[in-house]
Amino acid sequence: MKFGILLTSVYDRATPAARQRDEHAELVRTADQAGFSLMVAGQHFLGAELRYFQPVPWLTYMSQHAPSMDVATGIVLLSMVNPVDMAEQMSTLDVLTDGRVRFGVGLGYSPHEFDAFGVRKGERVARFEESLALIRRLWSGEKVTSEGRFVSVHEAQPAVQPVQVGGPPVWIGGQAAGAVKRAATRGDAWYSPPFPTHAQLYEMSRLFTETREAAGVAPAAEFPVRRELLIADSREDAMEAALVRYRARYETYRKWGLKGQNTPVEKSGEELREDIEQRFILGSPEECAAGLHKLGDEIGMTHFVYKPHWPGLPHAEAMRQLDRFGSEVVPLLRS
């Protein structure tokens, strides 16, 4: 099992950008020392609540602080961005990191982002699939002619090519059945988001495997999974910490328009606690290690992508959680 650190945003524009840069750099250096082998950065546009730096330059900068770590976009909003631009950006990143890139992609969900890019409702899947196919062809090194519905190229042969032959592995994110099937047939891995319950994660993992088998595609070599994880001296202490994080996190996602299949809804009291139990790994270091081991053993998780930063909580708390994960949870899993 490998470990990835998620460089997510917890600050809005009122916080100095340099502070976020320096705190992410500290996370990366500490994670590298703790045995993490991957850093992950996602993408959003025009965010007022949280500041997202664009992932390719961000990962390029952060990789200088941990030159041996792999890097992954988690995720690029491929239904919105230009595929020619993204093909060459990812090729550049692959060169700069000596071929240590994963290309994580997804559809997106925020109406204001789709509006800003002129993506009409009903187009996003078609745009995604056309863009991914074109990117793969541009990474092939061959001349490409493609008359697409959204983007066309003629006798294109980019000089900017990735180190990895054929391009970086493609991790496709999403939490609906359609997204999982798309990952099975068009991607190299399904990148599981943290929103589904543990039971839903198992169901979608089976769907991914069965769809891949039915399509005659070889088993995936990687299975990256995001689960929220809280370490404390007791399970009750971890639950109380999770309650604070849960409310702050999903309030932001609701503002951005996240909804649909396998997405948590508004709950309170015991219902909220039960919801957290179904989605979080939490408790003592031993309990957290057991939960992660179970995911590796039962569904074949190869990469656990960990997010210590949470909106509304100080960076020092993220560092405390990361330190405990590296010093108390990782040794239990290694043994």
The count of DSSP E runs of length 2 or more, i.e. the number of strands, is 12
Low-confidence segments: none
Computed over alpha carbons, the radius of gyration is 19 Å
Strand portion: 15-25%
InterPro entries: Bact_Lucif_Oxidored (IPR050766), Luciferase-like_dom (IPR011251), Luciferase-like_sf (IPR036661)
Domain Luciferase-like: 1-301
Pfam family, one: Bac_luciferase
Keywords: Monooxygenase, Oxidoreductase
Task: Write a structural description.
It is built from eleven helices and twelve strands. The protein has helices spanning 17-33, 55-62, 83-96, 111-116, 124-138, 177-186, 198-214, 235-256, 269-279, 285-299, 315-334, and strands at residues 2-6, 38-41, 70-77, 101-106, 144-147, 152-156, 170-173, 189-191, 224-226, 228-231, 280-283, 303-306. An eight-stranded parallel sheet has the order 8-7-4-3-2-1-12-9. A two-stranded antiparallel ribbon has the order 5-6.
SSE layout:
Blueprint: E1 2-6, H1 17-33, E2 38-41, H2 55-62, E3 70-77, H3 83-96, E4 101-106, H4 111-116, H5 124-138, E5 144-147, E6 152-156, E7 170-173, H6 177-186, E8 189-191, H7 198-214, E9 224-226, E10 228-231, H8 235-256, H9 269-279, E11 280-283, H10 285-299, E12 303-306, H11 315-334
Parallel strand pairs: 1-2, 1-12, 2-3, 3-4, 4-7, 7-8, 9-12, 10-11
Antiparallel strand pairs: 5-6
Helix pairs in contact: 1-11, 2-3, 3-5, 6-7, 8-9, 10-11
